[in-house]
Amino acid sequence: MSRVLRYVAAAAIGLFVASLILSLQGYSAGAFLEVLRMATIGSPYAFLDVLRWTTPLLLSGLAFLIAARVGYFNLGVEGQIYVGSLFSALISHLLPLPPVLAILAGIVAGIAGGVLWALPCAWLAKRWGVNEVVTTLMLNYVAVLLCTFFVKQFFLAKVAGGGTIQTITTDKIEANAELPVFTPFSGLNLGLLLALIVAAVAAFVLMRTRTGYELSAVGEGPRFSQFSGIPVHKRRFQAFLVSGAVAGLAGAIETQGVLHSFIAGSLDNMGFNGMLVSLVAMNNPIGLAASAFFFGILQNSQLVISQATTVSSYLVTVVSALFILAFAANPTRFLVDTWRARRER
Amino acid sequence: GESLNTSASSADSSAAAGGKSVLISSQPEGDAFGDLVFSGLQKLNGETGIEVKQIAGVQPSAYEQQVRAAVQQGYNPVVVLWDDLANVVTSLAPSFPDTNFMIVDSYIDPKLANVETVVIDPTQAAYLAGIYAGNATKTGTIGFVGGAEQPVIEKYRCGYLAGAEAAKPGVKLLTSYSGSFTDPTKGQQVANSQISQGADVLMHAANKSGLGVLQAAAAAKKTGIGVDFWQGDVAAGSVPWSALKDAGTGTYTAAKNATSGNFKSGIFTWGAQEGAELFDQRDLDGLPADLKPKMQTAIDDLKAGKITLNC
Amino acid sequence: MNGEFASIGALLLFVVVAGFQSATPIMFAATGGSFSAQVNVFNVALEALLLGSAFAAFLVADATTSVWLGLLAAMLTGTLLAALFAFLTVTLGANEIVIGFAMNIAVVGLTAVLLTTIFDSPGSYLSATAGKFPMLYSDIGWLAVLAVALVLLGHLHTFHTRAGLRMRAIGQDPAAALAAGLRVNSYKYRAVLMSGLLCGIGGAVLPLSGLQLFSVGMTAGIGFIAIAAVILADGRPLLAGAAALFFGFTSAIGIALQTYGFPNELVLSLPYVATVVALFVKAYVTRRRAAAAKAAQRERGQARILVNA
Amino acid sequence: MPDQQSPAVSYVELAGISKSFGDVRALDDVTVTAPQGRVTAIVGENGAGKSTLMKVLSGVVTPDRGTVRIGGVERHFRTTRDATLAGVGMVYQETALVAAMSVWENVVLGWEPGQRGILRRKHARRTVGELAERYSLPVPLDAHAGDLPVSIQQQVEILKVLYRNADVVILDEPTSVLTPQEREGLFAAMLNLQAEGKTLLFISHKLDEVLASAHHVTVMRHGRIVSSQRNDELDRRGLARSIVGRDIAPIDLGTRPERGATVLSVQHVELGALHEGPGIREASFEVARGEVVGVAGVSGSGQHELLQVISGLVAPDAGTVVLDGRTRKEVDSASDPAATLPALRKAGMSHIPADRNAVGTLRRRPLWFSALVGRLDDPEYCRRGVIRRPAARALAERIIREGGVKASGPDALPESLSGGNLQKFIVQRELLSDPVLLVAEEPTHGIDIGAARDLRQKLRDVAADGGAVLLASTDLDELLETCDRIIVVFDGRIVLDADRQDCTEESLGAALTGLSAVPA
Ligand SMILES: Nc1ncnc2c1ncn2[C@@H]1O[C@H](COP(=O)(O)OP(=O)(O)OP(=O)(O)O)[C@@H](O)[C@H]1O
Ligand SMILES: Nc1ncnc2c1ncn2[C@@H]1O[C@H](COP(=O)(O)OP(=O)(O)OP(=O)(O)O)[C@@H](O)[C@H]1O
Ligand SMILES: [Mg+2]
Ligand SMILES: [Mg+2]
Asked: In this complex, how many residue pairs, one in chain B and one in chain C, have their CB atoms less than 8 Å apart?
């Protein structure tokens, strides 16, 4: 109950400040509410757009959450999504397949990409106790540079008519590999269903199964886990890789559902937003869906503001940040404590 | 206060003149090149009063939604900048036959009846910069700093190299990349590494990072060459030449045609022969007496189409 | 590509200059971050502190033509932003990562908006009036000397002052520190504010050293590099400073290598890869020693555990 | 017997103190006095309010009502710092040292000598050294506190209090983790303090030492004072009765059965000294059905490591451990605790770990979560990978009921339980699986006398039912009272392995300190 109150209060603060900012820009006091209305129920497609944004946020949030449950801070979700996106785009070119198979192949490839990029960090953490916060953060930068290099060298898109492409991107994926959209008027695609299924399965596993029990135990009490005969390092390693897999899945869904090619510099901040989604949900799998939906509304509102007003896009990001601050300025102790517990080890 | 001026549901697609036009670009506002292109639309607004708007700073994964929203809000033509958005337009345009689209500064031509591609070629301006560099270098080594190794940046480099070789056969060109378009310090360091290898004229194609290149050149008493618009004021006295990319006028010309019922699909190249400005008159006026005629010849040749650059 | 350095001397000189130049703001931020780390506050807002104070420095230096007033403003701004961070995390108990990231986003946006409002120049603004910090040699400013001095002072503070001892105690075991009668939160505040002050100086370096330029998001991730340095160093200022230098130098070496024809993306990723490799080597060396001793022990016989099947 | 003759002035006076935590009335109108230069003992059951009362005196807890007087002056402590300035210092039940800092740093922390913020390291270290010498508390000044045995850590805590010039020294259960020798050391130090005119308050569950050291004994029950008497007015039995509210029966050792089949055989086990502690050398012994075997050792001797090897937590470097070896199956990987542990549990091993907080339970998960230890292979609790919560909660409820645990239910968090109750929960959990071999490390640590007696009886019952028990304890009385055989570990070796009848406190004490090097 107090939790609900907390979130309501945070939303109120966020709304107030956002309205204040818009009114300082010469808009009416209710303008932000109007933006919210437009961004959610303003048109038949607005709500679909919110869900479209919820999809990758849910998955990247889940990716962070899974690692956090075992006490790892996977700040590399960002890079893992990116590599997943590349892999998913490439497989479509390397291995043309009939409809359903092509989609599956893209998804599997994306997952493989995410796992691949999580692997070095996971191994270094497991085998050598190397701090994953640093390695994952560093590998984000490397992912961007390396993917660019790779695409430029081997898979650069060809322009119809022999012109020059300006940005680093691959050719469009095969139509077979595209995730079907529900309507041409919104980017919402079948990925939402996939994401929901994955999130539901993950929530079930984390909260109801032996695996979830072991992961929680490993994350919160390494010595208790050892005492209980849980293979601590193995579980943490596995969770790290699954985290990477989910990130890779997010990359694949964005690629196959929306971008339809790998684009250098795309998917910016998707991983970090996912981290915020998870942290605002206090790493609770159930709260995660709500949190992702909330961030989805926020993200769609950002776009609507830029369409409907002349307010600076930077100001819009400030407004989102304020919402996040309002939601977080509250005892989200859980994660901090996990971090401390880890330091004490 | 002002209330919100649009609503997503009011999708009237009147293509008539006196409508409104929007520029969607992938760089956040304040991007100098995006502003340059938008200045073309603003000029149109000044002349005809049609409403113009710039939407900036969106992520690739939101492009499609932004373009779709622009169409639904009745903007016509919808102008987009660069390849990523061009690809989005390519896939969306068939669904919105009543809206005209302009793709600016891209070579992508989807060959659709409602899409026009406005090519603004940097190679000619870069060629002139090369002429300048070839003549100005004393060490025989010149430098080029790109923001990232991308095909479009290669076009600058290619034109630059062609000009330099034409002016001074056998000239040595150093090429480096700052890896970022927004980090002046990186640009400065990359330039310094070239300077320490003997480069004495440095051109950049690195947006804000390029400011650092010009600064480094000035600090080392070398010569810098500006890009995209006149940068003679960046490091006073040491940027005697800038390679302009006349995107504003190109966009203006195409958009004017589109809003006055003369929309033409296909590729529209805005180059020297079409009247694009490749340099700033101030720079030409300031050239030393021996160099000025050589430069003038190159300019005339470009305008006359006598020089073809294989870039 | 084709380059060769005029001499090995020129190459070394370039690397030293560029290395120090890149490392200077990171050293400030990393030393500041070390203080936070000592009291076990994970200061993810370093990037925001740097950027906010960079803007303040630029604004004031542009208006007053004095870099020193700019520096002062930066230190003030850094400290104020740090106070906000401390209030939200220490007092309200909010998650440090969320607050840190949200502040980073907010400060990028705010400085961008202010830049447009104040200078009417979106994106970036080149100041004609703001001065430049005095340079020691080439692009190495006197502030680089200050950075090194502060790293040393930070070390002294950590290990040779009362406050340092108390901060470390608080970081390692807040309960024990509380039991010893320390006012835990006030030291946390103190440490975070010190982070802010130092990031303030680091931020001022950015727009007032080479170009008198502020551009949106000009910190370009160096706050995160500083965080990496702090984690690498486990909150010890000397090591964090060394890590910052290491990072600056690898990136300078990367730039130099580019002109020898190495693909630029690979070369640009050098500092990041090098950081990971350095961490690995550190872990490898420590663990190898332990493992070797363990193996020697094992040679004495095979251990067996049998149970009733 | 302490000197009873010289006049005693009431130095500390606590009057009419009440304190509630939510619904729990921890202190109810408590009045206690403590004279200068004397030891006043506070005894009582777990949860009686002893620690809370002392925390009121040391400024940790602010009372709801009542007054605190020190040396006749009324004081209102809001922080521990206030109390420190008034000359009150407390050594807590759980030591509160910064593990990664040196001893001298820990001692001076918060009150460091120095000028203008600069720490005078040499001076500080010397001061601590002198203090240690004066009170005969030989601590290694430069060692990291975390590396020290608990007994030394406790001396550091005492030094901390003395360094702050305390006139009133409170010791909360200081002896529960000490070996007899270490306890002697502590009492010697306490005598020193008395001689210096300090006022000592001393909490303990061990009546013998209370009677041996305290001048006055105050008994608490349910937050109230039950009695407050001079030592010479007391006897052990009466004291026990007033604590528990009934007589305490001695435990039933049963009739010792014929030596049964071997349950545990440890042969030539070796462990290097790398495992964050001392090693084990050439350890061999056997435990038979029906036996309770005690394991004793001064901390740091390797006895803890030996039990960890037996319970599968640490892989031995060499040697063989056979559990209930009628048909011997080698565990897949002797070097991977994650593999050996479940196998050992399956074969009937149960383990009560020494650290109930970090090892025995998961602090922030409900009790039923911790109840599931070792039971996830049982389809009753986990079927097809899905945990059956109703069964798990029922299990936790059963443990709570049968173990006499004071807890609000299966959903209570371990951290909300008092130490003694958490210990009872763990013990009962391990007993519930009808162990063939029960490895019990310090099971009565911090448990009041009544409960401790019941617990020892339960260990005996395991043996009586045909199981075997390995009982590690620092309390020799406990070992002599409960065990059939006692093993003493010194310096990583088993130096004594003898039947209880052949052991005395003296012989054990000698073996513990390595004085009688008669190999087993
Ligand atoms: N995998 C699991 N198996 C069994 N119980 C679990 C598992 N994970 C969590 N629990 C415990 O079950 C209780 C009820 O859990 P619920 O499903 O509401 O999870 P929660 O507490 O919301 O989530 P969280 O695990 O994030 O704390 C919680 O106290 C939780 O500790
Ligand atoms: N901080 C607290 N919050 C809630 N309840 C508390 C707190 N501290 C103590 N209590 C409760 O007050 C009562 C007295 O606890 P206290 O720790 O004083 O017992 P004790 O006599 O020291 O017991 P033990 O012998 O187990 O150490 C117990 O019921 C305990 O659960
Ligand atoms: Mg107590
Ligand atoms: Mg107790």
From this structure: 111
Q: Where are the domains of chain A?
A: 53-289
Chain C residues with beta carbon closer than 8 angstroms to that of B183? 218, 220
Q: Which residue has the tokens 């992961």?
A: A215
Judge whether C299 lies within some domain: no
Q: Tokens standing for A52?
A: 């479209």
Q: CB-hemisphere CA count at 13 Å for C287? A: 13
Query: Residue A219 Cα, ligand 1 centroid: separation in angstroms?
Result: 13
For the record, the structure tokens of C263 come out as 């693909």
Residue of D18, D23, D52 to mutate, ligand 2, most atoms within 8 A of C-beta? D52
CB B109 within 8 A of CB A161: yes
User: Following DSSP, what letter does each residue of C151-195 receive, concatenated?
Assistant: HHHHHHHHHHBHHHHHHHHHHH-HHHHHHTT--HHHHHHHHHHHH
In this structure, is residue C237 part of a structural domain?
yes
Taking CA–CA distances from B191, the nearest residue in chain C reads C255
Within-domain flag for C304: no
Largest CA distance in chain D: 73
Q: Model-level pTM?
A: 0.87
A345 to chain C nearest CA, in Å?
11
Domain span at residue C94?
12-281
CATH of the domain at C264: 1.10.3470.10
Option in A163, A172, A308 nearest B4 (CB): A308
Neighbours of A200 (CB within 10 A): 12
Closest CA relative to residue A259, chosen from A106, A152, A112, A108: A106
**Whose structure tokens read 């060109």?**
B173
Q: Which residues of D389-422 are buried (b: 16+ CB within 10 A; e: fewer)?
A: eebbbbbbbebbeebebbbeebebbbeebebbbb
Q: Token pair for residue D81?
A: 């710092």
User: Would you call A314 and B29 a contact, using CB atoms and an 8 Å cutoff?
Assistant: yes
Mutate to test the interface with C, among A74, A131, A142 (most CBs of C within 10 A): A142
Find the radius of gyration of the CA atoms of chain B: 20
Q: What is the ipTM of this complex?
A: 0.84
Atom of ligand 1 nearest to the CA of A283: 26
A221 CB under 6 A from ligand 1?
no
- Closest-CA residue of chain A to C98: A276
Q: How far is C36 from chain A (nearest CA, A)?
A: 14
Q: Which residues pair with A246 in a beta bridge?
A: none
Number of domains composing chain C: 1
Residue C280: its chain A contacts at CB < 8 A?
Answer: 124, 128, 130
In-domain check, residue C296:
no
Residue B289: count other Cβ atoms within 10 Å of its Cβ.
6
Smallest Cβ distance to C211: which of B172, B182, B184?
Answer: B184
pLDDT 10s digit of each residue in chain B, 311 long? 455 654 333 333 334 445 789 999 888 777 788 889 999 999 999 999 899 999 886 788 889 899 999 998 899 999 999 888 998 999 899 989 999 999 998 888 888 999 999 998 899 999 999 999 999 999 999 999 999 888 888 999 999 999 999 999 999 999 999 888 888 888 999 999 999 889 999 999 998 889 999 989 998 999 999 999 899 988 778 999 999 999 999 999 999 999 988 899 999 989 999 999 999 999 999 999 999 999 999 999 999 999 999 88
CA distance B225 to B246: 16
- Angstrom distance (rounded) from CA B164 to CA B140: 10
Q: Is the CB of A213 under 6 A from ligand 1?
A: yes
Q: Note the pLDDT tens digit of each residue in C220-269.
A: 889 999 999 998 898 999 999 999 999 999 989 988 888 777 888 898 89
What's the angle, vertex CA B175, arms to CA B174 and CA B177, rounded to 5? 145
- What's the rounded Cα separation, in Å, for the pair C119 and C129? 13
